[in-house]
Amino acid sequence: MAEDHGPPDAVLRAFGAHGDPVRLAGGKGGTWRAGDVVMKPSEGDDEVRWRAGVLSTLPESPDFRIARPVRAEDGDWLAHGWEATRLVAGEPDQRRVAEIVRAGAAFHGALAGVPRPSFLDTRRNPWVTGERLAWETQVPGAARRPSVLLDELLAVREPGRWAEQIVHADLLGNVLFAEGMAPAVIDWAAYWRPPEWASAVAVVDAMVWHGFDIGLARRWEHVPSWGQLLVRAAIFRLATWDAAGWAAEPEQAYERVVHNIVAFVASGG
Fold this sequence. Notes:
CATH class of the largest domain: Alpha Beta
Structural class: alpha+beta
Number of domains: 2
Distance between the termini: 40 Å
CATH architecture of the largest domain: Alpha-Beta Complex
CATH topology of the largest domain: Aminoglycoside 3'-phosphotransferase, Chain: A, domain 2
Order of helices and strands: HEEEHEEEHHHEEEEHHHH
């Protein structure tokens, strides 16, 4: 939920943030900057503390940057229900898909040894519902309303074997570019799935929202079972749309992309 009035003074003091808070674009409208500190309300304290612990010890890389978490004055990663990171330079550019996928792959490579966190077993939100429908065969029927597009995707989904690890499943708008710097990966949406699936989600997002055709997806057709990863990426996004209860219908945005993905799979992709 967006915080209309910004972080309270107690939060600013706890994180050592100075200056008047300024709302940042994105972040569901609830992300604020004061000086070089970026703050937002926690959406799950266990996840915030786990994520901060991982990112605080992640080695520097020539291939990507991260927003380092900031501890509160009492040593916790949370203060009054808020979390904080250092500001990182850069702006998103969702048309630089190949660079985003490459930065995501480097980020995932650095995370390859991180154990599966326990909060994944108890987290509940529409995005988890979409992820479950994309990957699991048994999902409660109430998890989605009827959708011809989802049915088309589910009809071509086939079993597969992929190595799984912790990944960032919302890369496209969360990689920042700055001249002379490695891309910065921010706002980590953590899931335990194949890293190639996270790449497929970014590609599907680019096709839906930025006008790319199936030619973009074909750039990664050398990835084993790439078509099935695209299917699961599209199911994830479509089911999330349904579960979130948004008023608009997804068919206009997704119809072309879904039909292209189904055709790609049918052609052996």
